[in-house]
Amino acid sequence: MKMLSYFLLFTCCIEAGLKAQQLDPAPPIKVIENYTIELTRPWRSGLLKVETLYSRISVEAHDIDFVDIEIHDLQGSNEKYNSLDPNRWKNQELPFSFSENENDVILSEHAESETGLLLLIKVPEKFSVKLKSTVEDVFVLDLKGQIEANTKVGNISLNRIYGSVVANSVLGNIDVYYKEVTPRYPHAVSTLKGDLKLVLPANSSANVFIGCNNGKVKSEYPTKTSGKSDQNERIKVINMGMGEASIGLRTYFGNVNVYKS
């Protein structure tokens, strides 16, 4: 009996650790440049649009009335970036352009090869974002506005969010941690070959529809199976509260995990 208790305790600790584990944008090594973008209408909602080929994107919401952009060098942060020349940007112009118009902030990258850069961007809490990185990861933290995030190879991690979510990746994993689920807006998360992780508050009012072709579905909330599509897709449904919000999850070759926050 004592051995069984130890085993159950160990299992619970492992599961708690897996639920708490989050994708990390990597520790910044050094700041190369910093930009502050003043807004036309401070303290109003706005939109940040970022599109990159090779740079990692991390957006954090703060109690501010401007947009702050720090460009960090990831050289030396892990094996992927260790081979990069630490002085490669010393005498070169950084491959980014910025613009602001009526609280719409646009950041574009025009690099032709691996940059090894992290864009650490701070925005007002009520901002919405449209983020795209072709080969790198995308991170969002504490945002109350609407989120669109897209990658082909990278992962997507959305943590402590309140607004709507549309997130897509081809090869990457997607983690979504809701602080609160907002109804009346789209919530759709999909990846071709990656895994999906969804964390929801127990008091959420939402219906969650899970499409999973070849992987496994694990949920801390009760699920029911609604049928199969022509592609042998298993569709599971989680009904929570009044079902005011609709959340769609889809992966073709990955697994889906749904947790209580």
Number of strands: 21
Q: How many distinct helices?
A: 2
Strand content: over 45%
User: Order of helices and strands, N to C?
Assistant: HEEEEHEEEEEEEEEEEEEEEEE
Helix content: under 10%
Biggest sheet strand order reads: 5-6-2-8-10-12-14-20-16-19-18
CA gyration radius, whole angstroms: 20 Å
Which overall shape is indicated by the principal axes computed on the Cα atoms? globular
Determine the structural class based on helices, strands and strand pairing.
mainly beta
What does this protein structure show overall?
Mean pLDDT is about 85; it is low at about 1-20. It is built from 2 helices and 21 strands. It has a domain at about 25-145. About 10% of the residues lie in helices and about 50% in strands. By secondary structure, the chain is mostly beta strands. The chain has helices at about 1-20, 80, and strands spanning about 30-40, 45-50, 55-60, 65-75, 95-100, 105-110, 115-125, 130-135, 140, 145-150, 155-160, 165-170, 175-180, 185-190, 195-200, 205-210, 215-220, 225-230, 235-240, 245-250, 255-260. An 11-stranded mixed beta sheet has the order 5-6-2-8-10-12-14-20-16-19-18, with no helix packed on it. Strand 18 and strand 19 form a beta hairpin. The longest helix has 19 residues, at about 1-20.
